[in-house]
Structure formats: structure tokens, C-alpha cells
Amino acid sequence: MKRDDDDNRLYGMEIMNWDLSDLDLLVLSACETARGEETFVGGLRGLPTAINIAGAKRSLLTLWPVDDAGTAAFMTGFYGQLASGQTYS
Predict the structure, then answer these.
(1) DSSP string for the chain
(2) Residue 2, domain member (yes or no)
(3) Which residue has the higher pLDDT, 78 or 11?
(4) Which of 47, 60, 64, 89 is deepest in the core (most CB within 10 A)?
(5) Residue-wise over 63-84: b if at least 16 C-beta within 10 A, else e?
(6) Checking DSSP bridges between strand 26-27 and strand 59-60, what pairing results, if any?
(7) pLDDT-based confidence at residue 1 (cuts at 50, 70, 90)
(8) Distant-in-sequence, close-in-space partners of 74: CB < 8 Å, separation ≥ 6
(9) CA angle centred on 20, ends 16 and 21, rounded to 5°
(10) What burial class does residue 15 get, using C-beta atoms within 10 Å of its C-beta: 0-12 exposed, 13-18 middle, 19+ buried?
């Protein structure tokens, strides 16, 4: 869904309208993706709530600033382990 005032950001109100029920794991590998800046639906906040409402079974987000090299190393290792048969739980 594209917002009228599109600023190339992803907002919780957009995600809540998506059907993510087929996703077993949703990964957002960027800085502070789990921090709630936006308030909606009775005071529930941010992307984690929106992802949950949209139906994703699990999500991997971060509360803290992360540098690009650290994120790349973590994601490479994480997906490498998944590719070798490890589970993410």
C-alpha cells in the first residue's frame, strides 16, 4: 500500500493491513526496527505490534542502533546457519 505522502518509509499502519500469515519469520535488519515511534490502535506501538497484527508468526528486529558491518556479519551468519539446517528458534 502506498501512502499519499510517501516518504519511502514503512509505517505500522501500512503493515497492519497486509496479510503476513504465511510468514514463519519476518526479518528487518536495520537500526532500531523494534522501537515504537508511532502510536495506533488503542496505544499499541510500532512495527512489532503491526507485524504481529498482520499475522507473522515470528519477527527478528532490533532495539538498538547497529552499524552496517555488524549487521552484515550477523545476517550472513544467521542465514548461513539456516542454510545449513539450523532452526531460528
Answers:
(1) ---TT--S---HHHHTTS--TT-S-EE--STTTT----EETTTEEHHHHHHHHHT-S-EE--SS---HHHHHHHHHHHHHHHHTT----
(2) no
(3) 78
(4) 47
(5) eeebeeeeeeeeeeeeeeeeee
(6) parallel
(7) very low
(8) 29, 66
(9) 120
(10) buried
Is residue 17 one of the residues assigned to a domain? yes
pLDDT digits (tens, 9 = 90+) for 76-89: 999 999 999 999 87
- Domain of residue 70 covers 12-83
In a domain? residue 38:
yes
What would the mean pLDDT of 24-36 be, rounded to a whole number?
82
Residue type, 13: M
How many percent of the chain have pLDDT more than 90? 46
